[in-house]
């Protein structure tokens, strides 16, 4: 699974940003901005952006003066990120086995990465380990269960339009078939919240964006 995902993102890296804008009708920028508003990193804080991809979230944190480390398993995605980021440290690595010592970050963020992990629980445990006490985790992810009245068009969109446009623009229809099924097969919001609480996060809450198609999950590692 991990190698498959790594290959897939490496193949679509050149068209990733363009397809994000197209397939979300430009809404993805607002989703990322909202996550950073919620996480509100302060100047000088150490922020870890997991599954950073082409670095859009890392750039938003940099703009707030945070010291950002962006980690991703795909080198071609990170190479794209180097074109945008100015001060972030970009690291090739696995979000399920982080090369950082415990309690080393004030904030951990992850945009559309959790559902791509082989074991989301292991990834969440790693975020908890590397957060400093009092630190916060913020996750942005698609939901398989949006508001009821949009469910049918959303399914149709995932099954037909997303793989069609993704396939045409990236030249890799299989990748966008996978991205679409990874959304449908992912955990429901209440399941993600249960996982976060089970690992030890407190004050776990979630915000629904764009009729519940996208969710922001927030949690705190309490000071003991
Ligand atoms: C959908 S992209 C999200 C990129 C970026 N965060 C964004 O908001 O656009 C998912 C990213 O997760 C990365 N990824 C998948 N599995 C990973 C893992 N186990 N460790 C680190 N990165 C991983 C992929 O290479 C890809 O760049």
Commentary on this structure:
The protein has 224 residues and is α/β, with parallel strands linked by helices. It has a single domain (2-220), classed as Rossmann fold. It has helices at 2-12, 16-23, 27-39, 56-63, 75-82, 120-130, 151-170, 173-184, 189-199, and strands spanning 46-50, 67-72, 89-92, 105-111, 131-142, 202-209, 214-220. The chain has a 7-stranded mixed beta sheet, sandwiched between helices. The longest helix has 20 residues, at 151-170. The chain starts with a helix and ends with a strand. The structure holds S-adenosylmethionine. S-adenosylmethionine binds at residues 2, 5-6, 9, 51-53, 56-57, 71-74, 77, 94-96, 111-113, 116-117.
């Amino acid at each position: 699974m991990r190698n498959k995902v790594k290959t897939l993102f490496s193949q679509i890296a050149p068209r990733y940003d363009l397809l994000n804008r197209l397939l979300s009708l430009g809404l993805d920028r607002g989703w990322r901005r909202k996550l950073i508003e919620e996480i509100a990193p302060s100047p000088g804080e150490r922020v870890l952006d997991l599954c950073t991809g082409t670095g859009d979230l890392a750039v938003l944190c940099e703009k707030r003066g945070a010291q950002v480390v962006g980690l991703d398993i795909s080198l071609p995605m990170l190479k794209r990120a180097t074109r945008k980021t100015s001060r972030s440290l970009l690291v090739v690595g696995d979000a399920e086995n982080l090369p950082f010592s415990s309690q080393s970050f004030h904030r951990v963020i992850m945009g559309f990465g959790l559902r791509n992990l082989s074991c989301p629980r292991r990834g969440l445990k790693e975020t908890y380990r590397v957060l400093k006490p009092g630190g916060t985790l913020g996750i942005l992810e698609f939901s398989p269960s949006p508001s009821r009245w949009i469910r049918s068009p959303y399914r149709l969109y995932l099954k037909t339009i997303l793989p069609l446009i993704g396939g045409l623009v990236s030249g890799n229809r299989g990748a966008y078939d996978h991205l679409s099924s990874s959304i449908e097969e992912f955990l429901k919001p209440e399941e993600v919240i249960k996982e976060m609480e089970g690992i030890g996060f407190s004050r776990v809450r979630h915000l629904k964006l764009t009729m519940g198609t996208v969710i922001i999950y927030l949690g705190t590692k309490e000071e003991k």
